[in-house]
């Protein structure tokens, strides 16, 4: 799929330090030239400030439709945003992008193990992550391994939710107009590993 290849190639340029798009023109020149957006991919990513999505994929203004929320969860507003992008822009690829050392995953693990008290607003996020973590808690894994597995399972569960909970998405997938894949960004290496 060409859209996935564009992301893989862009991430490789980011890792290699050979990015091509972000320094061509001052930002105000890009904005003046963009009348319509035509994103080739939708990225549902974590809101973590260490994961600048356009930068890690070396993509420019208008290339990606980015939806960010702690823990890259699928809540009604995120689903609505995805459906909007599919309907309006005919976007062909959705990437659920998680990352190493995710704070939302860590907070959910801490809540599950130590019964920490969180606000109701934070619960609205951690309650969506818990199904990814609860099966892993009793495996008695070292902390780093638990975190790594939880990040990946959470990505895959978000992919499955997108695939199963929206008629618009199901219809697009059935007609071979849309693919949904998971990916995991390493804060240490800068590499994006595609999981699905």
From TrEMBL:
Domain of life: Bacteria
Matches recorded under InterPro entries: Carbonic_anhydrase, Carbonic_anhydrase_sf
Names of the cofactor(s): Zn(2+)
Ligand binding (Zn(2+)): 46, 48, 99, 102
Cofactor, how bound (note): Binds 1 zinc ion per subunit.
Record field: catalytic activity: hydrogencarbonate + H(+) = CO2 + H2O
Coiled-coil regions listed in the entry: none
PANTHER family: CARBONIC ANHYDRASE (PTHR11002:SF76)
Entry's family note: Belongs to the beta-class carbonic anhydrase family.
Name of protein: carbonic anhydrase
Annotated source species: Vesicomyosocius okutanii subsp. Calyptogena okutanii (strain HA)
């Amino acid at each position: 799929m060409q859209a996935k290849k564009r992301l893989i190639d862009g991430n490789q340029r980011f890792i290699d330090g050979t990015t091509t798009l972000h320094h061509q023109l001052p930002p105000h020149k890009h904005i003046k030239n963009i009348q319509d957006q035509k994103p080739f991919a939708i990225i549902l990513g974590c809101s973590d400030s260490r994961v600048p999505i356009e930068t890690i994929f070396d993509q420019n203004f208008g290339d990606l439709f980015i939806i960010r929320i702690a823990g890259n969860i699928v809540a009604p507003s995120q689903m609505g945003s995805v459906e909007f992008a599919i309907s309006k822009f005919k976007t062909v690829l959705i990437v659920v992008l998680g990352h190493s050392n995710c704070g939302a995953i860590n907070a959910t693990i801490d809540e599950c193990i130590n019964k920490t008290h969180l606000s109701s607003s934070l619960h609205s996020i951690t309650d969506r992550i818990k199904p990814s973590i609860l099966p892993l808690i009793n495996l008695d894994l070292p902390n780093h391994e638990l975190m790594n597995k939880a990040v990946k399972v959470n990505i895959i569960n978000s992919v499955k939710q997108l695939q199963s909970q929206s008629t618009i998405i199901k219809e697009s997938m059935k007609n071979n107009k849309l693919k949904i894949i998971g990916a995991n960004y390493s804060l240490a290496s800068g590499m994006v590993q595609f999981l699905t």
